[in-house]
Amino acid sequence: MSFHDPLVDRFASHPGWGCFMARPEPLPADGDPIALVGVDVPLTDLKRSETTDNRIWNDIARRINAYPFRTSDQCSEKHYRDVFEFLRLNNGVVRRVVECGVFHGGLSVELAGCAVAFDLAIDLVDVNPGALLAAWHRIARTFPEALDRVRLFLGELPNYVQAVAADPDFDAALVHHDGSHRFPVVMRDLASLYYVHKRVHALIIQDTHLRHSDPSNFCFVDAAVAAVFGIDPRYQPVGTTFVTTTTPAGYRRGEKHNVYFQAGRPEGMLIPIAENRFLYPHPLIHRLDDFVQCPARQREAA
Ligand SMILES: C[S@@+](CC[C@H](N)C(=O)[O-])C[C@H]1O[C@@H](n2cnc3c(N)ncnc32)[C@H](O)[C@@H]1O
């Protein structure tokens, strides 16, 4: 394995790496869950509209907006709304949502609301155990009745696929990808879905419009989609599409670690799995293990 993600190296020594986590203990009422994440970012205060023509969305939005702490929710409101619409339209078809990359739980909390409304199971997957805990405690404050439907998995998507591949309850899944944005990592994540593709209904992948100022960041999510599904996958755009190349608030020209959004490219792509072909990996050449950066520690020890 030539490319090692420093973020994965940071967390893969955790004893629970590559496994589902035990149900977390409650936090004290005044404890802010994002303190558990251990990553400093500007907080965004993203509110969800409570006045749309859909009562279920408005109820979910109202409860998300009542959360007493600030967070950094990383997708546009349109992206969050499009994910909701997909789940609403596929009510009874999609039975499980796998969210890869949770951070402060911006989407996770919405998925928890959808889990109750549309009878879904939710698996949250992240390399950072603090992010999983923060998302859990945000759900606990916002949709406590959803907690029995939520599981936390510490590791990357290929680790998760290894864990559920033999589980018949893993079926009719929507996979939402907003984890690493580095080409080699996203490519491995998407390739791992090949090994369970008959049980994945659709993939929604975020930040397919994003570029990073530092070339060694390898931030090419859309290119990883092309590597796995070809340059012309069947997809629907999700979220915001900017008419011109756009930089986020706080952008300073020439500084490293800036990002920009490509003109005319969608924030996210909805990829129905049955309507697409995996051009990579090759069923006779690759094995799921080829895409696992750091195997589960318990598997290693066994
Ligand atoms: C952009 S944030 C996710 C934001 C979230 N979807 C939201 O609605 O605000 C990215 C998250 O992906 C996690 N991450 C980074 N690399 C990962 C990987 N290889 N596998 C799984 N999660 C990863 C980070 O720890 C972080 O929590």
Automatic annotation (TrEMBL):
InterPro entries attached to this UniProt entry: SAM-dependent_MTases_sf (IPR029063)
SUPFAM superfamilies the record matches: S-adenosyl-L-methionine-dependent methyltransferases (SSF53335)
Name of the protein in question: Class I SAM-dependent methyltransferase
